[in-house]
Design goal:
Strand order of the largest sheet: 3-2-5-6
Shape: extended
Largest sheet: 4 strands, antiparallel
Number of strands: 9
Distance between the termini: 61 Å
């Protein structure tokens, strides 16, 4: 065989093998557990740095290629890593079983009840009054969400309409004497003064700030500061500042209303680059 033919054949073969190694596919998987919640579990491709989050059923999809390493992590589970094999690539759906993150304590002291830890012995000596709640008492509107202090202040400052019409029969005898129903205009000076003075706007900002703080706590609970710091390459000491930076962005407001953790994680990913530039 001529030398130039051998060279051409080797080049084509090398290109084919190289293409095969770089070929990517969308891997579909399901995270499973016997006890804990399987939603919002973080799945990271350690090679491409791409990431995704499981849905309420534990399902996810992520772009991978052969021999990529996937890391699956959540606060309630022990971290797990898998290396993508040909069987993974050819499977329509892979299942990943996670192990609960159980913290073993060497010694536990329970006060003030002087419990021994032996349930059989403690159950007879321990008596607690039943917890009285609005639910246990069967009170009306027991399922209504409790308002925060800032929400109550805003409701008080912005209550009612600016202007309303009233009939004169609300004043009693006046209607009887004149024998007809008249109309009067009522101006809500309290609401107008709060609006003009800026108190209403200040309270609205306070409510939004409280909502952001609650959402920030929820994000940290779901993913932990360690995971956020490691994935976005941000010092753990700066994680709170990073979340505050993201939550203060105007385009985050619509996203935060949905409370979709998958979309919020993607948003944090996109904003991490901007935040690191501001820290330089």
């Amino acid at each position: 065989m001529p030398k130039h033919s051998i060279f051409l054949f080797a080049a084509v073969l090398a290109s084919f093998l190289g293409f095969g190694q770089d070929n990517t596919t969308i891997l579909k998987g399901k995270v499973s557990s016997t006890k804990n919640d399987i939603s919002n579990v973080l799945v990271i491709n350690l090679n491409s740095k791409r990431s995704t989050i499981t849905d309420s059923l534990g399902l996810f999809s992520i772009e991978v290629k052969l021999k990529d390493s996937l890391r699956i992590t959540a606060v309630q589970y022990l971290p797990k890593e898998i290396v993508i094999s040909k069987s993974h690539m050819n499977s329509s759906l892979i299942t990943i079983q996670l192990i609960d993150n159980v913290i073993d304590l060497n010694e536990v002291t329970v006060t003030p009840y002087n419990l021994t830890g032996d349930i059989d012995r403690d159950i007879d000596r321990l008596y607690l009054e039943p917890t009285v709640t609005s639910y246990s008492l069967g009170l009306q509107n027991a399922d209504v969400t409790k308002m925060t202090q800032s929400e109550r202040l805003l409701q008080e400052a912005d209550r009612g309409k600016y202007v309303s019409l009233q009939t004169m029969d609300e004043y009693g005898k006046l209607n009887e004497i004149l024998s007809y129903v008249g109309l009067s205009v009522k101006v809500n000076t309290h609401k107008i003064m709060n609006k003009v003075s800026g108190r209403t706007k200040s309270l609205e900002e306070m409510v939004k700030r409280d909502e952001n703080m609650a959402l920030e706590k929820k994000i940290i609970y779901k993913f932990s500061k360690q995971t956020i710091a490691k994935h976005f390459n941000i010092p753990e000491a700066n994680v709170n500042g990073f979340l505050t930076y993201c939550l203060s962005q105007p385009d985050f407001n619509e996203l935060s209303d949905s409370r979709n953790m998958s979309e919020i994680w993607k948003y944090l990913d996109s904003k991490s680059f901007e935040f690191k530039k501001t820290e330089r």
